[in-house]
Amino acid sequence: MNTDNELMMQLKGNDLDKLGILFERHKRNLFGFFFKITYDRDVSEDMVQEVFIKILKYKGSFRGYGKFSTWMYSIAHNVSVDHFRKQNKYVFSEDPEKFNSFEDQDHELNTIRYEGFDMLNRAMLKLVSDKREILILSKIDGLKYKELGRILNCSENTVKGRVFRALKELKDIFSKMEVPEK
Amino acid sequence: MKKEIIEKWMAEFLSPDISADDKEELKNRLIQAGYDKVELEDMDKLYSMLDEIEVPETSSKLDTDFYRSLDLHKDAYSDKSSQFGTFINSMFRKKYAFRLAYSLTLVVFGWYLGSWSGRIDNNNVKIQSMSQEISQMKQVMMYTMLEQPSATKRIKAISYTDEFENVDDKILNTFLDTLNNDPNPNVRLAAVEALSRFSDIQFVRKGLVKSILKQKSPLVQVALIDLMLKLKEKASKKELSILLENRELNYSVRNKTRETIRLL
User: Fold this and answer.
1) Domain ranges of chain A
2) Which residue among B56, B65, B77 places its CB closest to the CB of A16?
3) Which of A162, A173, A118 is nearest to B14 (CA)?
4) Which end of chain A is less congested by CB atoms within 10 angstroms, N or C?
5) Which of B203, B131, B151 is nearest to B172 (CA)?
6) B7·A31 Cβ contact <8 A
7) How far apart are the first and last CA of chain B?
8) Out of B11, B14, B55, closest to residue A36 by CB
9) Does ipTM come in above 0.85?
10) What is the pLDDT of residues B41-72, one digit of tens each?
11) Residues of chain B with C-beta less than 8 angstroms from the C-beta of A171
């Protein structure tokens, strides 16, 4: 089986079908990443599409020295930043309308709408999006702090500090929340 | 102790890549540096909880949109002449080669006839004839592409219906067959979408209803259930009720089915 880097090199040689293999390999994880920072399925799917369109557009800039996933998440990070910039949503506050709008989305969201939408999710939505993003990025399998530094264009130590501070803030928000009555 | 060092140790302590021994050592170091043990454990627990955030399944739209977009890019990138050559080579290995050759001959003959006669009055008739021949060619291409191992090509084949002047029963039956037997759920979803445009035809509608019980993929099941609701197809209530009897039915599909039966 071809590695991601091999597929990218073939893609660079205009074998565009290889993008389909990369899509099948990574769509689920990318979608999970976007969903956990936007909590919106449709938006997350659009963002996944955008990442793959950009992979195609910028395939020439992939040198193959580093891991494909690091390069892909760099693109995903830029897509995320653009999204929140456009939406002017860098600062999220808990919005009851947002929760209610989940009721209108289809069955798969309905399964998570209440039970999954627990204290942790509400606490996450109170974090600003870049803090939410670094926490989610740091949980992605195979991405080490050094690679997060490459994705976010900062040093490994800066990443460590940012992960810690985001988690500390999440914990403070979480601790202040009351357990909802069942 | 410097705040930066504590933050660095803490991030390393949380890292999933660290060994159990190193984690324990860092924990002791942090406690010795004055970090509260309970808070440390709470942070570790909270960080682990992030893995438990539930993520819904992606919709079929994601795949459909991606492969459509990929096809558009492929069309733009590919060398048209070499692609045409490859296509012709593969076509001649297929059982439809004769039909394609026949269609091509007719098109060329039609064009030659049109240019030779030079009679303007006949041009419209000939253009119409050519248009029919091209439509026939596309049908041949569609059947050929439906036999391809690539799911992308099969999806593209189904999307050709948008360009057909007439979609006959044979094509619709082929799509029903694809809906019930294609191994790829994305191809089956494309078949649902294509067939939904012909749902006013009785045998297509019946075929769609019957297909509900033949599907194993939750995505295709949901697409069909949604379609039944959109068509207000009360005849599907029987199939939907039988579907509910399946103990292994996806939880979300079960909810959707119950709701659809209620609404119908």
Assistant:
1) 4-176
2) B77
3) A162
4) C
5) B203
6) no
7) 68
8) B55
9) no
10) 888 888 988 888 888 888 888 998 898 888 88
11) 39, 42-43, 46
